[in-house]
Amino acid sequence: MPDLNDLKAAFVDTLEIDAARLHDGFSQKDAKSWDSLGMIRLIAEIEQRFSVQFDLMEIAEFKDFGSIRRALTAKGAAV
Question: 64 and 26 in contact (C-beta within 8 Å)?
Fold first, then answer.
């Protein structure tokens, strides 16, 4: 079952950032690669790794690492 390390890996692999920078408040302003295309790629990667799907209302609430982590927790993931 995917966990917090898998979520961090999705961010690291997709946005090409250092895992040490990740915390709940890490947001788009903290990574130049987290632009609109980066967001699409990140969501696709997370959905694949965690075998989940997000609807547009959920995605609209993705403001930072923590909000994505909480959305996955709500879907039953152990993050």
Answer: yes
**What's the number of CA atoms in the CB half-sphere (13 Å) around residue 77?**
22
Q: Indicate the residue type of 43.
A: I
- In the block, residue with structure tokens 């909000």: 67
Structural element, H or E, at residue 72:
helix 65-74
Structure tokens at 53: 């799907």
Reported as a single tens digit per residue, the pLDDT across 1-34 is 889 999 999 999 999 999 999 999 999 999 999 9
Cβ distance 4 to 66 under 8 Å?
no
